[in-house]
Amino acid sequence: MRIVVLAGGIGGARFLRGLKAARPEAEITVIGNTGDDIHLFGLKVCPDLDTVMYTLGGGIDEEKGWGRDDESFRVKEELAAYGVGPDWFGLGDRDVATHLVRTQMLGAGYPLSAVTEALCDRWKPGVRLLPMTDDRVETHVAVEEDGERRAIHFQEYWVRMRASVDALAVVPVGAEQSAPAPGVLAAIAAADVILLPPSNPVVSVGTILAVPGIRDAVAAADAPVIGLSPLVGGAPVRGMADKVLAAIGVEATATAVARHYGAKGAAADDAPAGLLDGWLVDEVDAAAVADVEAAGIRCRAVPLMMTDLDATAAMARAALTLAEEVRA
Ligand code: GDP
Ligand code: CA
């Protein structure tokens, strides 16, 4: 079975671990968000790709959910001693090696997709990890600080400000001019199932869908498209997804996010093409099932907390079961 997953960082990576456990024989292609990418100290950092690679490759800091295990921060301390910022980004010593290899290869002319493949040669994540694009896309967030509106990098909003002020707008800068990375559209077209894991609908999945061609390919795919809600009981399970949902006028509920993705084949004239055949909500949101189904999306309520590998594998199995139902 060929499965395509559109993934952000922590939520996407944890789900993928469960999916691999549930279907060890499946051929899984991950289309990773690169809108979080940032240049720091001359290094190209790809937080979401690295989170997927380290999580599936056994190198992740399990506690934090990002970065390398057994990490130290001496480089960061030395940079701070020079007064060289930013000081809010957690750049670990072991992690720096990944960014050095990536930056060096990009400098030598390799596209990000080839660099990611080379990094995965070491980590052997057990999936084919593709960046959504080889082009530079950077998510910026418009905020008001001291009475002035300005756009800042998503990482600055998320990490430095902890999303403590309202996001007025979220813009994937460069997305319109970008093209899907080699292999992305082919993988979508050849998929037996396409999954939207519990990743951030705006700054992870939304950014991937903003690369011209990807959304239409998913909407047009023969494969069932099944999503899992990252919102449980009207709030994100972790992180501040509600802040960026508010910026695009979507309520922080499982139903609102399903409607935002839209029912497959249900596009109005100039609205973006609808994507979902099926949607999983958590058991606490069982009351949402009827609303989602009224929107033309097959919906089931199942436990959606990724507390351990077994629970996460059960979520993946529920998504694949719903895909079978839709197909039948
Ligand atoms: P990021 O790039 O690290 O922010 O990761 P993602 O975009 O992949 O995922 C973040 C989303 O995952 C957040 O909106 C969380 O609400 C969601 N999430 C995290 N853990 C869980 C969980 O156990 N269950 C569900 N349903 N969602 C989760
Ligand atoms: Ca991310």
UniProtKB/TrEMBL annotation:
Signal peptide: none annotated. SUPFAM superfamilies: CofD-like (SSF142338). Transmembrane segments: none annotated. 7,8-didemethyl-8-hydroxy-5-deazariboflavin binds at residue 50. The keyword Disulfide bond does not apply. Keywords: Magnesium, Transferase. Its EC number is 2.7.8.28. Its cofactor is Mg(2+). It catalyses: enolpyruvoyl-2-diphospho-5'-guanosine + 7,8-didemethyl-8-hydroxy-5-deazariboflavin = dehydro coenzyme F420-0 + GMP + H(+). It holds the Pfam family CofD. Homodimer. This is Phosphoenolpyruvate transferase. It comes from Streptomyces catenulae.
